[in-house]
Amino acid sequence: MTVRVLLTDDDALVRAGLALMLGGSPDIAVVGEATNGREAVDRVRAGGIDVVLMDIRMPVMDGIAATAAVLALPEPPKVIVLTTFDADEYVVRALAAGANGFLLKDTAPADIVDAVSRVVAGEPMLSPAITEQLIRQVTDAAPDARADIAQRRIACLTDREREVAVAVGRGSSNAEIAAALHMSIATVKAHISRIFTKLDATNRVQVAITMYEAELL
Length: 217
Hints:
The chain is of the alpha/beta class. It has 11 helices and 6 strands.
């Protein structure tokens, strides 16, 4: 199935570059462009979009507000926030708005294509640099007690679940985890679902933070 992508950025050169990057994949089709968040919301409302690549700083409506508006629609597409700004506040705000991924614009073309495929498959995607920043922001706030709390939280995980959780924390995809641990992708997904439940996590970043605090990363 072809993944239909909407490019949202107020810079025409950026949109052209993204279209060129994504156009090399036979499984992805750029089906629309928007120059601001309001246009993106209107285009998504019209239907036929699977993934939105969303800039943060735009006129009329910024990418954070647009992400929240898009994801509030019935049967919304996935949203990957793509920006030159890597400050922690943007990461936190984008994730709080419900973004499925957060990548920097200097991310390698192959990794952007991979990110689109991964979010469609239900895997939230953050660049390793962004994940490290977010983990550092959270863990630096209250260092000492967090290790004990995290270790108590992961005590409920089986050995296999712990292996999967560590791999998630390192940014591995479901397919990479399956290959490394010699299990099917369906089994990996089942383990991740149980890990989310046991750790009371809603995304992979939260799992990564817990494993980092437990000193397993």
